[in-house]
Amino acid sequence: MVRRTALREGLVDIDGARIAEATEQLRHRGRATLHDRLHRVRMAGGLAVQAGLAAGVAYLISHKVLGNPQPVFAPISAVGTLAASVGQRFRRTVELIAGVGIGVAIGDFLIYLLGTGAWQLGLVVTVAILLTIFAGASVAIVIQAAATAVLIVTLSPSTQNLEIPRFVDAFLGGGVALLVTAVLLPLNPLRVINRAARPALDLLATQLDITADGLRSRDRASVQRALDRLRNNKDELNTLAEAIEGAKETSTLSPARWHRRGELIHYAEAADPIDRAMRNTGTLIRRSVTLIEDEEPVPDPMPDAIGHLAESVRLLKQEFAAGEEPQKARERSLRAVSEAGRAYGAGVGFSGSVVVAQIRTTASDLLVASGIEQEEANRWIRTAFGEQERPVGEPAGPNEAPKPPTAPPVG
């Protein structure tokens, strides 16, 4: 009753505003979650179709051509090969066959000596794992050898002559998986990379924009949120790295994609610089938080420079996707450095000088990602930064105002 009376008298409904804000946040989070899920479905759509086709083809060949009445292992091997990390499928096929061979040999030998049973099963699995580890095999071979040994021990009493079909089916399933990915249904490597690169580059650009706006308004909370979000970038970077490896594998195995090899060079060479740009941007944002906390000056060109970095990332994404030389992205990176030089000349504090340094370093990373050699990129950075780059303690000219006593940024 008091609340309704207060509302009738024209007072502000504080709780209502809080509820509305919370509802809007939940709605935004729901849209973001749905968008992320749809993106993951689009990313995995090609793999799902490839896996279904490979499983069906492997089943038909094993059952109809080889006469296997229960062709279980062939489609399992095909799907297992395709489920491997993109870019490692050829290696996974070899590991699959090697693991099956080791498991069959160990299982048969110990069954011949000891018979079958629960303790024999445990011993077979233990020996298979220890021997493969002793031989220096990969984790995939160890798991496959142990799994095959289990199948041999458990199914041998009811199924005769299981060993050869198991080995043949493993070879068949892996081969069919490679056939599907290389010949029957090869994915467009550039399209795969573009989809994988989009989340990583969008994340980087968005957090740079938020940081620029936060510096303009001295909003520490928003800059801190940008830092927290950028720190959780492992998924985006791992997806990009796997997509690049998968594109390399596809362009190597698939005759239909051989002409794409040259176009993949940009992405392959850009992966490491983009990772470094992420890390250096993290330092940039962290020092921006400190800058606001310490109430240091924020010259107008400083947030403008960070905004230009964000636009450079977007242009890099667009020009890579279009298969163009990333000239616009390079120009925008150099503009960011030029604005950082103006900010440094206007006067910055200690954290501000670090932010300027990280703008330079991140711009250098983006130039290298665009295909520029590191030394040339550093030379361009120094030129764009201009005359503001004076060592600490060097006296100003007779008609010049002295620069603030902060450490100059380095490239």
From TrEMBL:
Keywords for the protein's UniProt record, in alphabetical order: Coiled coil, Membrane, Transmembrane, Transmembrane helix
Pro residues: compositionally biased ranges: 401-411
Listed GO CC annotations: membrane
Any Pfam family hit: FUSC_2
Coiled coil: 220-250
Record-annotated membrane-spanning stretches: 41-61, 73-90, 97-115, 127-155, 167-187
Keyword Transmembrane helix applies: yes
Domain Integral membrane bound transporter positions: 58-180
Protein name per Swiss-Prot or TrEMBL: FUSC family protein
Organism: Micromonospora arborensis
Source lineage: Bacteria, Bacillati, Actinomycetota, Actinomycetes, Micromonosporales
